[in-house]
Specification:
The complex is a heterodimer. Chain A is an all-alpha fold. Chain A is built from 11 helices and 2 strands. Chain A has one domain (about 5-250). Helix content of chain A is about 75%, strand content about 0%. Chain A has a two-stranded antiparallel sheet. The longest helix of chain A is centred in the N-terminal third of the chain and has 31 residues, at about 60-90. Chain A is elongated. The two termini of chain A are about 30 Å apart. Chain B is an alpha/beta fold. Chain B has 11 helices and 14 strands. In chain B, helix 6 (about 170-185) links the parallel strand 7 (about 155-160) and strand 8. In chain B, helix 3 packs across helix 4 and helix 8 (about 220-225) crosses helix 11 (about 295-300). Chain B is elongated, with a radius of gyration of 24 Å. Classes of the chains: A mainly alpha, B alpha/beta. The interface of A and B includes residues 23, 89, 90, 94 and 97 of A.
């Protein structure tokens, strides 16, 4: 770590965090509002029909999934949109010509996205605690898991932001992969309610492990083993972080 | 530091099928004001982008004060301040904050950068715009911001890619004054420009780049003297045939009592010509000189205009 440009890393991280806070109406409030609406509409209306899943009231059951969906979509979209925006608005040369290493550049973007993911995740968590008295069984593990998933998906966002050339490509990733996989990962149901083939299919969806991991730390119930959820989150963190840093180092897609 | 500020040797770069640079050699001494001139697509911006780390080179040496720009990028980039040709857009932060961010990327904390930021805001007339977003600035103001950003970490070498493109005449002259001041203060400047007049006025040395190669280098004066054509026009009466022998050393034509001499340096030979004409009883009505500009040299070397 000697020889790191710490001031540079701190500055770029501050810029990344400041960027999304400066437009909190776009980056923080929507997740909170849509989660509130999910609780009201899905939770309170469906609770008339589905009383409990795994012994947990339905409204409580869906909340960890909503935390996770908010966390991972915000973390990934922060890093990806910031990188693409800098590319398209000619801001990237400013940081690529500065004495910042690929590691420092990557870390700043990843931390920026991870902070946004955590802020959004924690706000939905607080919403659950305040609105429906959600008990949090393992608060530290919950925060730790939100951090790990934020980091993993922020790294994935940075990878996608580097690869993308247009907003359309980024939106495609979000709309065709991330959102469907989140919904199919068991936010609103337990996979035991699905037919066998769909249960098997859910096991290859990485977001299934994220949702069940956080559900375990908050409610103490989970379709997958907590260890598997943690290992999947760790695997994704390592995979996406190293890929994003290596791509940054290679300069492909950001340098000519 | 005894090494040159910038040293480039055998620099090659291709983009897919297009050869952008094919062996650029260039040396800029410490404290020199160097102008890189070339038509569109000649390789000016690619050369600069390779030096600054924005473009990956295929082959060749690129050094700043003797250090490799890839291996020792932290050192070399900290020596460079770059005013890019493209004007950036930022929706999120005020101008002053952006300058502090830029200093931070170079390892300078906000506290340490404050005097420098204040000085630049004042010197470049941006004080009133410190809280403005970039989208609220005029093109000229954005150019000043680009320059302030390039200078915020007080670099030894300043790279200016078309620094006065799209600015009005008044601001262009203000920026020229400021660039001269920077040069007088010992900064090394590398300028690319579409305005040959700019290079002629400011640069001690210019390099003409065409088709990815430096084809000629020298001071603007030396280049126009060596490659340009100059002339002396003399309106006389009293021509006599003896003058054909007396003016044998000169290349000239006579047409309607008007003599046109083709020379390399009019100032050098004008006195001799006038003396010969006077000694042979000619009455001289008027004398005028004409001299090639750097633009003429550029045209003759590249066969095309800079724009």
């Amino acid at each position: 770590m000697r020889g790191m440009n710490w001031v540079g890393l701190y500055t770029l991280t501050r810029r990344e965090v400041g960027r999304f806070f400066s437009v909190y109406r776009q980056t923080v409030l929507p997740g909170l509002i849509s989660s509130g609406l999910y609780i009201l509409i899905f939770g309170f209306t469906l609770e008339q029909r589905i009383r409990e899943i795994d012994g947990v009231p339905y409204t409580l059951f869906i909340l960890p999934g909503l935390i996770m969906m908010n966390t991972l979509t915000n973390a990934s979209s922060n890093a990806s949109s910031s990188m693409l925006q800098m590319k398209l608005l000619q801001q990237l040369p400013d940081i690529l010509t500065a004495p910042l290493s690929s590691l420092e550049l990557s870390l700043a973007y990843i931390i920026g996205g991870a902070v946004r993911g955590m802020v959004n995740g924690i706000l939905v968590l607080l919403l659950g605690v305040l609105l429906i008295d959600m008990p949090v069984q393992q608060p530290m593990a919950t925060l730790g898991f939100i951090f790990l998933v934020s980091w993993a998906f922020s790294s994935m966002g940075l990878l996608l932001g580097q690869l993308a050339d247009t907003w359309d490509q980024l939106a495609m990733m979000q709309n065709f992969f991330l959102t469907p996989l989140s919904f199919l990962g068991g936010i609103f149901y337990s996979i035991h309610m699905l037919p066998d083939w769909a249960q098997q299919l859910s096991l290859v969806n990485p977001i299934y492990y994220m949702i069940n991991g956080i559900r375990y730390t908050v409610l103490g119930v989970s379709d997958s083993s907590p260890l598997n959820s943690f290992l999947m989150a760790l695997f994704m963190t390592i995979l996406f972080t190293s890929s994003a840093i290596l791509l940054m180092k290679s300069g492909k897609k950001i340098k000519q | 530091m005894n090494n040159p500020a910038v040293h480039i040797s055998g620099l090659h770069k291709s983009y897919e099928d297009t050869m952008a640079l094919c062996g650029v050699d260039l040396t800029i001494e410490d404290g020199q004001f160097y102008g890189l001139l070339g038509p569109n697509g000649a390789g000016k911006t690619t050369t600069i982008h390779i030096l600054t780390g924005l473009v990956l080179k295929n082959q060749g040496v690129t050094e700043i004060y003797g250090k490799d720009t890839v291996k020792d990028y932290r050192f070399t980039r900290s020596q460079l301040g770059i005013a890019h040709q493209e004007l950036p857009i930022d929706w999120f932060f005020p101008l002053e904050k952006l300058l502090y961010f830029h200093a931070g990327y170079y390892g300078i904390t906000q506290k340490k950068a404050k005097p420098r930021v204040e000085e630049l805001l004042k010197r470049l007339g941006l004080q009133d715009k410190r809280s403005a977003r970039l989208r609220q600035l005029s093109g000229g103001m954005k150019r000043r911001y680009q320059l302030a950003k390039a200078l915020v970490h007080d670099p030894k070498i300043i790279i200016l890619d078309e620094p006065t493109a799209g600015v009005d005449v008044e601001l262009r002259h203000e920026l020229w004054d400021y660039l001269r001041e920077l040069h007088q203060n010992g900064k090394t400047l590398l300028l690319t420009t579409h305005y040959i007049e700019e290079a002629e006025l400011l640069c001690e040395k210019v390099g003409i780049i065409d088709k990815g190669k430096i084809i000629k280098e020298g001071s603007p004066d030396d280049l126009t003297r060596e490659l340009g054509k100059a002339g002396i026009n003399v309106h006389i009466t009293g021509w006599n045939d003896e003058l054909n022998n007396a003016l044998d050393d000169f290349s000239f034509i006579l047409e309607d009592n008007r003599l046109h001499f083709t020379v390399r340096d009019p100032e050098e030979v004008m006195a001799s010509i006038i003396q010969i004409l006077s000694n042979h009883g000619c009455h001289i009505h008027s004398v005028s000189t004409e001299k090639s500009s750097l633009e003429d040299v550029f045209l003759s070397l590249t066969g095309k205009g800079i724009n």
